[in-house]
Design a protein that fits this description.
There is one protein chain. The protein is an alpha/beta fold. It has helices at residues 5-8, 31-41, 47-62, 73-86, 90-95, 119-124, 141-149, 171-180, 197-201, 226-233, 247-262, 265-283, 311-314, 318-327, 353-372, 381-393; strands at 14-17, 66-70, 104-108, 129-133, 154-158, 185-188, 205-209, 220-224, 289-295, 303-309, 331-334, 343-346. A seven-stranded mixed beta sheet has the order 2-8-7-6-5-3-4, sandwiched between helices. Helix 12 packs parallel to helix 15 (353-372). The two termini are 24 Å apart. It binds pyridoxal-5'-phosphate (PLP).
Amino acid sequence: MTNDPFKRWNLTPIINASGTMTSIGASRVAPQTRALVDRILDSFVDMDELQASAGTVISRVTGSEAGCVTACSAAAMTQSVAACLTGSDLARIEALPKAMGNRRVLLQMGHMVNYGAPVDQAIRLAGAEVVPIGTAAACETWHLRAELEQGAAAALYVVSHHTVRENELPLDIFVALCREHGVPTIVDMASEYDLVGPIALGASAVIYSGHKFLSGVTSGIVAGTSELIRATYLQHRGIGRTLKAGKESVVGAMAALELWEVRDHDNVRLAEEARVNRWLDDLTGIAGLIVEPHADWTGNPITRVLIKVEPDVAGFHAWELAGRLEARIPRIVVRSGLAERQEIYLDPCNLSDDEAVQVSTAIGDEAARLRTGGIGKSVSWSEVKAEREAATLAWRGNGDAA
Ligand SMILES: *Cc1c(COP(=O)(O)O)cnc(C)c1O
């Protein structure tokens, strides 16, 4: 039997021009990380010792007092919120999601987003109550202060392209106000490259995904104060058991962080920029497509390619182009989260130069087919929404039984 999972289980290969998307396997794990994970998988290790060692690595990289590893960032949110409800009281930890005392967790309304699941649910899972502050596109100091004065177990801040960033409370003001009121702050930085900023500002806990830009295995990294990290880790004796991080997750996260410390970031950036420039060259001149470099939404050091579709000139909608790319074999996955605005983004992080060329060739081919085949501008955005919902519900637990 073949050792290639794609052949063995008849899986569809993917070229990933979308960055780090959990729905298609997040990232390419570096060989050095895979080797360490492989070694630990064949061994036994005291998990308390392993997690303490992970804390040493996390502290060194982030500047925090302590750290631990969870199953993923969503689990890290649930466990660190739980920690704010229970402290290190084992009876309280075992009692969750029934919480004693103040259960209020403050969250700016514009940060109540969906990264594949809702942020507020990750908080509620711990037994906490989410208190939205401000409105969808505006949060002011007085909104936060008023709720802090009512008392709170914690306040959560999300840094992400998913959030509404116009008129949000800046992180420094948020952390400072919470500190003034003695309320711990948890910062979700799942997909953000800045490993030191929030800790330096005085955040109590900061969360990163091990499997996004860090290119590790599926894991969540929590950096924070000794007290809060102990209480976060101790949740493994309670609700954290449901969110278990095994030895492979912990070692995978540690290895990824250490690789990040020695990675030649400038060279990686140059290689990514070369792919971006190639795309800009290849795609310029396709009728109805405006292509330009696009700086990352939250200031991460990534430049992507923005393809703005003008449907009347191109003869198709952005979502139709993205849909046809996804229907190819191999599937080509682009960032189509803003297709509603006729925008598609190409991300250079998780593909080879050769794959990058295949992406631009496929875009040229599919654009031509959509235009000349008379099939463009036939599917509305509302129909796409309905199709996506139907596709979600059409999943079946037996791939053979079509
Ligand atoms: C990806 C993401 C998450 C979830 O991360 P996982 O590690 O996959 O659970 C949470 N918050 C934000 C902002 C994200 O981008």
